[in-house]
Amino acid sequence: MSWYAIEVQPDPERRDAVAAWLVSRTGQAVEERADGTLVSFALDLPGAESLERELARTHGPVPTTRRELPEVDWSTAWRAGLGVRHVGRFAVAPSWIEHVPGSGELLITLDPEMAFGSGEHGSTRGALLLLERWLRPGDRVLDLGSGSGILSIAAARLGASRVTGIELDPEALPVSVENAARNGVAGVVRFVEGDAAAMARLLAPADLVVSNILRLVNQALLPSIHDSLSAGGRAIFSGMETGEAEAFRGPLAEAGFTGLDEVVDEGWWSVAARRA
């Protein structure tokens, strides 16, 4: 059985909508290239063909290219090139690399496997930096689209009293649970499977919400995030390119948030805001 990569080239006006649809349809992160191409993946040829047909039915004709990927042991291939990443006070280390943290350094030992969140992506690093700046000890935290659990673990490391990660992909949950246990924060952090828009309000109140997802998904989640926050609560939004900043600031303000802080890392924009 071979995996297939489906390269999608929507026009700029439809790019965000197509990206959000691919994420919701496959339950996987989408690679976003600098030229505007989106790359999604399917387990086999019928799956790739089905994805292309559904895409055309949902969004109309969109140029796509399909290619078969060479056979790789994906259970270990994700390790290639990963090393210790230093982000603010955090040191994010793969579990197979021994790292002794320096004075004041907060160590996160991680096996991301196929779940998103290893510290190698600018959106994750931006969220980590804003967490360090805006999380207060004792905060109750919601992590929307928790992936590998890296941001939930970081929140616990910073002194959160309770952290709940919400993840739509069931395959990511055991990865995040194991990572929380590996870092000794399983008593503070828990992970649940479900749709963040529906579950955020059910898990309220939160003092801080972090959402490292695509811009259109972040935008759709604004009402749920606002309602799940306590008065004066803070939200961190990541997963957006720098060119999307202006498009997000307006809806952010309209949803009742006041901007606090911003981070740009390798073309990825993250913002912290306070519920008005």
Spans of at least 5 consecutive residues whose pLDDT stays below 50 are none
Shape-level CATH architecture of the largest domain: 3-Layer(aba) Sandwich
**Structural class by helix and strand composition:** alpha/beta
Describe the sheet with the most strands. Answer: 7 strands, mixed
- The side-by-side strand order for the widest beta sheet comes to 10-9-8-11-12-14-13
- The end-to-end span amounts to 52 Å
Radius of gyration, taken over Cα atoms and rounded to an integer in Å? 18 Å
CATH level 1 name of the largest domain:
Alpha Beta
Shape annotation: globular
**CATH topological fold name of the largest domain:** Rossmann fold
Helix content: 25-40%
General description of the model:
The protein is of the alpha/beta class and 276 residues long. It folds into two domains: 4-71, Alpha-Beta Plaits (2-Layer Sandwich), CATH 3.30.70; 117-275, Rossmann fold. The chain has nine helices and 14 strands. The strands form three sheets. A seven-stranded mixed sheet has the order 10-9-8-11-12-14-13, with helices on both faces. The chain has a four-stranded antiparallel sheet with strand order 2-3-1-4.
Structure keywords:
single chain, 276 residues, alpha/beta, Alpha-Beta Plaits, Rossmann fold, seven-stranded mixed β-sheet, four-stranded antiparallel β-sheet, globular
Quick description:
With 276 residues, the protein is an alpha/beta fold.
How would you summarize the topology of this molecule?
Elements lengths: L3 E5 L6 H12 L4 E2 L5 E5 L2 H15 L4 E5 L5 H4 L7 E3 L2 E5 L11 E5 L11 H13 L5 E5 L5 H8 L4 E6 L4 H11 L6 E5 L2 H7 L3 E7 L2 H14 E13 L3 H10 L2 E9 L2 E8 L1
Parallel strand pairs: 6-7, 8-9, 8-11, 9-10, 11-12
Antiparallel strand pairs: 1-3, 1-4, 2-3, 5-6, 12-14, 13-14
